[in-house]
Amino acid sequence: MSVADSASESGDWFQALTGFTEAGYSETRAKLAVEGEELVSRVNGRRYAVGRLELVKLATLRGRVAMPPKRRSRLGCIRGDVRALHASPEFEGALFQVAPSSICSRWSVRR
C-alpha cells in the first residue's frame, strides 16, 4: 500500500508519512530530524527532501524561466485534486501551489 493510499484510508496524511500522529510542537519536533536536505522521521525512518520557502513576486518567477514565444504564464485559483490536475493535458507544464497560506505563519522562524 502506498503512503497516499494509507493516508486516504486513515485520513491522517501526517501519520501515513511519519509513522506518528502530529501532537504539540515540542513532541512532534522531537520525533523529526533534519539531516542535510532531508526531513527524517525518527519513528519510521522515512526520509523526505526538504527545501527553502521562498516568497517572490510573480514577475521574479517569470524572469527565471524561458517562456515559449507567444505563450504567457497565467495565475489563477482552482480547487481540486492536484494529482489529477497534473495528469490533465490542459495543465501540461503547470506549477501548482498547494499549501495553504497559513503554512507561512505556522512554520515561521521563532525569534
What descriptors fit this protein?
111 residues, alpha+beta, three-stranded antiparallel sheet, disordered C terminus
Name the quaternary structure. single chain
Q: Could you give the order of strands across the largest sheet?
A: 1-2-3
Largest sheet: number of strands, sense, barrel closure: 3 strands, antiparallel
Report Rg. 18 Å
Describe this structure in a few short sentences:
Helices cover 33% and strands 10% of the residues.
Layout: helices, strands, pairs:
Elements: H1 3-10, H2 13-18, H3 25-30, E1 32-35, E2 38-41, E3 47-49, H4 58-64, H5 82-87, H6 103-106
Antiparallel strand pairs: 1-2, 2-3
Structure description:
The structure is a single chain. This protein has one domain (3-106). It has a 3-stranded antiparallel β-sheet. β2 and β3 (47-49) form a beta hairpin. It has helices at residues 3-10, 13-18, 25-30, 58-64, 82-87, 103-106; strands at residues 32-35, 38-41, 47-49. The relative contact order is 0.08. The protein has 111 residues and is of the alpha+beta class.
